[in-house]
Amino acid sequence: MIASEFPVLAVLCGSAPPPDMAAIEEAAVVRYTDARGLPEALTGAQGLFVYDFLSTAVPGAWHAAGDLRWLHIASAGVDPVLFPGLVESDVVLTNSRGVFDDAIAEYVLCVVLAFAKDFARSLDLQRAGTWQHRETERVAGREVLVVGTGPIGRSIARLLRAAGLRVSGAGRRPRTGDPDFGTLHDSAQLTEHLPAFDYVVAVAPLTEQTKGMFDAAAFAAMKPSARFVNVGRGELVVTSDLVAALRGGEIAGAALDVFDTEPLPGDSPLWTMPDVLLSPHMSGDFAGWRNTLVEVFAANFRRWVAGEPLHNVVDKRLGYVPSESQGAAG
């Protein structure tokens, strides 16, 4: 049991509180707040639930977090809260790893099929009332590189393999014989491997090493017929280089669910470029996902108050949950 029978929990949630918090409210003093009120809510709080997972308010309120022992973010990516003050502190960081894996994998399969079967052009022709017969591509046997080998990447690999695609991965530790990817390439030598693939899927966590990894050199290394899919973080991509690669025919298309600036500015050329599929950061957002995020937090909250090891503990130096580590002392 933690020191106080009723711990103080700050919840950063913007204008709307999370659903299904009744059980937590019975076991803690819960302070709901938006970004402006976060310093006051953090004063004396032992826990922080960052439900508004796109908020960048935590670093600016960190001066008030003197009693904080645990921070949980309602997303798989932790880059909005991974700043030096947290990294250097003793505060345990956990995330919502596992919630979005299958939904994002379904999205990736969807856009792969959309490219192969030319769905976007079919819809344009339908709206124009034009009957135009065309031939499309098979996906079976196509080569896919999934850059990012955590649970989301593995779910993507399994689903694409089931559809007949041949999938490899790229991560920090290259090896062969992986159960989901077969071959894992070294992401530090990414451009050496890109020429072999028909689809390249970005799902790596955002770290200093991965920021801007898809730049002019990466796109130039891809096949002219390759399609690029980003369901990781917008900052993995140098957007101007992607636009130039699409305009210059260095790659054949892109499906983008995340962007370095969100919402995507209205004057971005990506809105109107052919062979570009856009969605507003929603690839993992299935019906009921908000409730599931609270369930994941509530399960860890019960472990925390009981002094049990927490699940999904992030290695703050790496920026993600190591595959071999699921928990740590609360």
Q: Could you give a short description of this structure?
A:
With 330 residues, this protein is α/β, with parallel strands linked by helices. The protein is 28% helix and 18% strand. It has eleven helices and 15 strands.
Descriptive report:
The chain has 11 helices and 15 strands. The chain is an alpha/beta fold and about 325 residues long. The protein has 2 domains: about 130 residues, Rossmann fold (3-Layer(aba) Sandwich); about 180 residues, NAD(P)-binding Rossmann-like Domain (Rossmann fold, 3-Layer(aba) Sandwich), CATH 3.40.50. The strands form 3 sheets. The protein has an 8-stranded mixed beta sheet, with helices on one face. A 5-stranded parallel beta sheet has the order 2-1-3-4-5. The longest helix has 18 residues. It comes from Amycolatopsis carbonis.
CATH topology of the largest domain: Rossmann fold
Decide which structural class fits the backbone: alpha/beta
Mind telling me the CATH superfamily name of the largest domain? NAD(P)-binding Rossmann-like Domain
Q: Please estimate the helix content.
A: 25-40%
The biggest sheet amounts to:
8 strands, mixed
Number of strands: 15
Instruction: Strand order, main sheet: write it out.
Output: 8-9-7-6-10-11-12-13
Task: State the order of secondary-structure elements, H for helix, E for strand.
Answer: EHEHEHEHEHHEHEEEHEHEHEEHEE
- CATH architecture assignment name of the largest domain: 3-Layer(aba) Sandwich
Q: Round the mean pLDDT to the nearest integer and report it.
A: 95
> Which overall shape is indicated by the principal axes computed on the Cα atoms?
elongated
Total number of helices: 11
List the uncertain runs.
325-330
Task: Tell me what portion of residues adopts beta-strand conformation.
Answer: 15-25%
The N- and C-terminal alpha carbons lie at a distance of: 10 Å
How many structural domains? 2
Radius of gyration of CA atoms, rounded to a whole number: 21 Å
Which CATH first-tier class of the largest domain would you pick?
A: Alpha Beta
